[in-house]
Amino acid sequence: MAGELVDNKGRGDVGWQWPSIHPEGRKFGLIAVGISLLAAFLAWETVAWPMAFLSLGVFAFFRDPERVVPQDERAIVSPADGLVSLIAQVEPPAELTMDDGSGTSGLPNQPVTRVSIFMSVFDVHINRAPIGGTVRRLVYIPGKFVNADLDKASEENERQHILIERQDGVSIGFTQIAGLIARRIVPFVKPGDTLAAGARVGLIRFGSRVDVYLPAGTDSKVLVGQKVVAGETILAEIGEQKLIEGIAQ
């Protein structure tokens, strides 16, 4: 199915398939499998069975399913699977607004809508580009590992800021944030790379969060408490402002 064009009129031939395992996780899964087999060979059942289940969990954590990315110039797609935990008006991080000497401008230094997506250990942890364009910044910041569901995690935790600029000058900044269990942010891209919307940009190991800073004059199309899917769920449409209310049921 990869690369196949589908639409909302029924075009496209699709079917369910097992998701692939990202190479970053295969080594961890194989290590767990090896320990399980060794323990089974030595008749250490109390070790063999837990390690067998752990290996399945590791492979599941690093699964990398295909996604159908909406092809709409106005659309900002979710960069992460997970729960929309916070939506707030904030000023973007200094790393995304300051002059970094590269000759390219950052985000405007004014309040914008930030959508925070919390990823549990059960979610897919491959992060994707919310728009197509050129990677202008990739800034890694060491920090703490407090609960990624807390608002202060945006400023205190280990994190990585990414800025993508479209050809028309529209820029989107988003931040990968490590959490209580997460201990490494792994980038797949570098400044200067040109990406399509929904392209894989990196992952965060074992539970984390992604903050997305929408352009000025753009409201979120998702609600607090909503589950979103990386590369598929439309978080916002550029330039659209509208109150959307929901009822949890």
From TrEMBL:
Enumerate the active-site residues: S208 (schiff-base intermediate with substrate)
Post-translational modification as stated in the protein's UniProt record: Is synthesized initially as an inactive proenzyme. Formation of the active enzyme involves a self-maturation process in which the active site pyruvoyl group is generated from an internal serine residue via an autocatalytic post-translational modification. Two non-identical subunits are generated from the proenzyme in this reaction, and the pyruvate is formed at the N-terminus of the alpha chain, which is derived from the carboxyl end of the proenzyme.
Q: Which cofactor does it need?
A: pyruvate
- Positions the record marks as coiled coil are none
Which family, according to the similarity comment?
Answer: Belongs to the phosphatidylserine decarboxylase family. PSD-A subfamily.
Pyruvic acid (Ser) modifications at: S208
What InterPro entries does the record tag this protein with? PS_Dcarbxylase, PSD-A
The protein's name in its UniProt record? Phosphatidylserine decarboxylase proenzyme
Recite the UniProt cofactor note for this protein.
Answer: Binds 1 pyruvoyl group covalently per subunit.
NCBIfam families given in the database record? PRK05305.1-2, PRK05305.1-3, PRK05305.2-5
Top-rank taxon: Bacteria
Instruction: Please give the subunit comment from the record.
Output: Heterodimer of a large membrane-associated beta subunit and a small pyruvoyl-containing alpha subunit.
Q: Which GO terms describe its biological process?
A: phosphatidylethanolamine biosynthetic process
* Known EC number: 4.1.1.65
Q: Which organism does this record belong to?
A: Pelagerythrobacter rhizovicinus
Compartment list? Cell membrane
Which chain regions cross the lipid bilayer? 28-61
UniProt site positions, description: Cleavage (non-hydrolytic): G207, S208
